[in-house]
Design a protein that fits this description.
The structure is a homodimer. Chain A has about 450 residues and is an alpha/beta fold. Chain A has helices at about 40-50, 70-75, 80-90, 110-120, 135-140, 150-170, 225-235, 255-265, 290-305, 305-320, 345-355, 360-370, 380-390, 405-420, 435-440; strands at about 10-15, 55-60, 95-105, 125-130, 175-180, 185, 195-200, 205, 220, 240, 280-285, 375, 395-400. Chain A has a single domain (about 10-295, about 370-440), classed as Luciferase-like domain (TIM Barrel, Alpha-Beta Barrel). Chain A contains 15 helices and 13 strands. In chain A, the strands form 3 sheets. Chain A has an 8-stranded parallel barrel, surrounded by 8 helices. Chain A has a two-stranded antiparallel ribbon with strand order 5-6. A two-stranded antiparallel ribbon of chain A has the order 7-8. The two termini of chain A are about 35 Å apart. Chains A, B: Belongs to the NtaA/SnaA/DszA monooxygenase family.
Chain lengths: ~450, ~450
């Protein structure tokens, strides 16, 4: 068999249930009420599977964004719980990976190891875990705390949390279960291992009360783009969702290449090969049959967010209320990162925008609201993806959608075929598990000895 | 319409994945390997739905029972995680309730409120929560502790946990979501409520980031039979699964009546009506087409448990290793309950057996292993159920199965039709939600004011 051309990995992302955008639910074509109906999610994930996406990527937070009234009044801040939703979706799909966003700050590794293992069984090897550390004090207050855990501490906890989870997945060796009715031996006790973990944040004895997942370990995804986030990614992640890469038409490929090299370059010190990590920048295509139609679509999206909501969102990202400043003048200061305890990389992105361009407050909130958007024809969008893919800035993309399910359907019907024509994306699934789709090895069990 | 005859409520219980019995997986007809295959559970829950069961009741624990080697070698101590499994099962069923066993000792109310609400949406109003407090030190050691929380403290925590969860379910009033694309109003902020709970064990601000479940609150089930457990049941539960009732052929109806009256009698002080709580004793029918066949089935089951496993199980329930005592002599002491921190009601049951009968150690472990079993023809089993049902000892039953899926199929094909002939059980589902099946009211939202 001839060696195949390198293939893109593609994730289909659901940030808000109605789309990527805080106001996606208002889009004329969005099915806002679908949020509470399983058939809505079923239709979306089946469409993504029809498009041969590697995975459905489901975002999550652990609070209602009620810091500002507009968050409740205008934003869609409720969503189904990831494990429940993805387990149900496993039943109505056959090939597509299912990625759950789960916080290491407000969970216990034993529960998470078990739920991910169960999802991996229910889906026959299609589970993935988007490891996040949560961002806000609001989340802390739903879990007995006043303040969100400090940035450095929460990444330290995240690293230990992942270690413990991986250790629990190895509790049972792959061939530990015997099911031998005649002898009465259900399992081989020599192939069961206690973790006996005792660390700074966790003390967990084990073993896990479910056997080793079909994939050995479900696929690990990481999106933190701070220094601590990048180190966690280099050490542990198999996919990086890179929302911080300033992906936009006409440029900044160099930024993508720099981040790509930065992440891959950190892997060697953890004893890892570059191929063991796939880097997927986030991108939101706004597709038009013509350039004019794409621009119309973009203009429509810009109008969806009420001014107050846009300003409040900016205030949130900055950690400071900016709503009293004049709308058509620049922000009178450059925000500082050091003491900031939400998303440091998000704030860094805003700083970079302000350092490169002079934007009024209005322009700034519009830019922030429409993060990651590129408008164009299917060919133009494919050009951009191809450029990043072949020039060392991406191993694939996590695709976001201005509204759901329509924008996903457009992407599947218009952009995917273009990528396939170019030989950049699969026309059929060839493997069974998410690891197969991504050409990732099944990890060995840490406890299994090579036996004579 | 004429008033219908009072109807039994029936739960189909899965204690171990292969059946009720610690050695169910060894039964010649058990599908032991099904444990890891979704289709196994799908077949079982669809069979229960064919039988018009009110609910599928899924037990859980948070550890591998490895206190004794036999627990790993001979027992089936792994199982899928409840929320993941039941969410998947929601997709392949239409009517049957789905009850998840969830511990209040090793969880956070925000997570559990959200997962149960999601399951209620995924199933269109069929979620239930079997509230347990966990039992063993082994579970504690998987969650950062050395010892299991003291019995009194864990029931105190359970009560507060349920309060918080119910409060979170009321975060959004039933008509809080507007989805008004034209005005940009997603929700009516006046219909969103923070819980701001601050109690002994929990501090939870809320609101919950999913809207009010279809049932208002998923159905609450409680099984603890200690004093603390009974009080929690009388205050909060809508179903009591009464595993402690010594249900056996030929007698002890009086014990069932006493427990029934005891529980119902405690409700008034919590301002509740007797009908708001359904009492379902646990029972494991061993069905034969003839009495002789039933006895053969019973004998077969008795042989499945290896002697060491039976003894170790008894040692576990007693909290003391009895394996060194002579097998064919009585236990030389009566165990004390006061200091016991596992299941107090389980130990009480053993004490009652020993006070009523003189059993050798061998006979005692066999009795314990085959808990709740009654062997008979379908008519005899229906007679027993009817007797308890019409004589004030039960509102229905939680049916356990010697092996799965076969014993469930037999019950559906042989006993259910007999109950239906007697007018004691539905022939079709008439409602949509689990509350409908059980004739339980949908609870009002605590925050909703009657508006002019």
């Amino acid at each position: 068999m001839s060696k195949e051309k390198r293939q893109m990995a593609l994730g289909a992302m659901m940030y808000f249930p109605a789309g990527e955008h805080i106001s996606s639910w208002r889009h004329p074509k969005a099915d806002a009420e679908g949020l509470l109906d399983f058939n809505y999610y079923k239709q979306i994930v089946q469409t993504a599977e029809r498009g041969k996406f590697d995975m459905f990527f489901y975002a999550d937070e652990l609070y209602v964004w009620d810091r500002f009234e507009s968050g409740v009044s205008h934003s869609n801040s409720i969503r189904p719980e990831p494990f429940s939703l993805l387990s149900a979706l496993a039943v109505v799909t056959e090939h597509i990976g299912l990625a759950a966003t789960i916080s290491t700050t407000y969970n216990e590794p034993y529960h998470i190891a078990r739920k991910l293992a169960t999802l991996d069984y229910l889906s026959n090897g299609r589970a993935a875990w988007n490891i996040v550390t949560s961002q806000t004090d609001e989340e802390a207050r739903n879990f007995g705390k006043d303040k969100h855990l400090d940035h450095a501490l929460r990444y330290e906890r995240a690293g230990e949390f992942v270690d413990v989870t991986q250790g629990l997945w190895d509790s049972w060796e792959d061939d530990a279960l015997l099911f031998d009715k005649a002898s009465g031996y259900f399992a081989d006790i020599n192939k069961l291992h206690n973790l006996d973990h005792q660390g700074k944040d966790f003390k967990v004895r084990g073993p896990l009360n479910i056997s080793r997942p079909p994939q050995g370990h479900p696929v690990l995804i990481q999106a933190g783009a701070s220094e601590a986030g990048k180190e966690l990614a280099a050490a542990k992640a198999e996919i990086v969702f890179a929302p911080g890469s300033t992906f936009a038409p006409g440029g900044m490929l160099e930024d993508g290449q720099r981040l790509y090299e930065d992440l891959k370059g950190r892997m060697a010190k953890y004893g890892r090969e570059r191929d063991e990590l796939k880097i997927l920048p986030g991108v939101m295509p706004i597709i038009g049959r013509t350039e004019a139609e794409a621009k119309e679509q973009l203009a429509l999206i810009d109008e969806l967010t009420p001014q107050q909501l846009g300003l409040d969102l900016l205030s949130h990202y900055l950690g400071q209320d900016v709503s009293s400043y004049p709308l058509d003048e620049p922000l009178p200061y450059l925000p500082e990162i050091a003491e900031f305890n939400q998303s440091k990389s998000g704030l860094q992105r805003i700083r970079e925008i302000l350092q490169q361009e002079t934007l009024t407050l209005r322009q700034l909130y519009q830019r922030i609201t429409n993060k990651r958007g590129i408008a164009g024809t299917p060919e133009q969008i494919a050009d951009h993806l191809e450029e990043w893919f072949i020039h060392g800035a991406a191993d694939g993309f996590n695709i976001a959608f201005p509204h759901l399910p329509g924008s996903l359907t457009d992407f599947v019907d218009l952009v995917i075929p273009e990528l396939q024509r170019r030989g950049l994306f699969r026309t059929e699934y060839t493997g069974k598990t998410l690891r197969d789709h991504l050409s990732l090895q099944r990890p060995a069990n840490r406890f299994t000895k090579v036996r004579a």
